Amino acid sequence: MFIIAVDGKETEGAYSVKNEEGESILYIFEELDDAMRYAMQLEEIGFPEMNVLEVEDEIMLRTCEMHDHCYTIITKDDVVIPPHSLEEHDYI
Fold it and tell me: 29 CB contacts (<8 Å, ≥6 apart)?
């Protein structure tokens, strides 16, 4: 599985999206290509250079649950595009 972070700031948090209630939702991608494509889309709308990080799925999910972070797993069948509003982006 893969997450996205700002290049050089990987220890400061991972990219997430705010939902309608204002909660940060961590995107966890099953496929490297999908994570890389999303990272490129972020850069195209003005984000700094992004880095795709491979994570151990079981450890990542347990960590999110331990810290009460919301997450969603993006499968190869899902289509996601970055929100247009910068207020809808976040880091956790």
Answer: 1, 2, 3, 4, 35, 38, 52, 73, 74
Q: What is the mean pLDDT of residues 58-69?
A: 91
Helices (H), ranges, the chain: 32-44, 57-66
Condensed to tens digits (0 to 9), the pLDDT of residues 17-58 reads 888 888 899 999 999 999 999 999 999 888 889 999 999 999
Cβ-in-10-Å burial (0-12, 13-18, 19+) of 79 comes to: exposed
Contact call for residues 21 and 62 (beta carbons, < 8 A): no
Q: Which of 61, 59, 50 is nearest to 91 (CA)?
A: 50
> What's this model's pTM, rounded to 2 decimal places?
0.88
Q: List Cβ neighbours of 2 (8 Å cut-off, separation of 6 or more).
A: 28, 29, 30, 31, 32, 35, 52, 53, 54, 55
Q: What is the DSSP letter of 27?
A: E
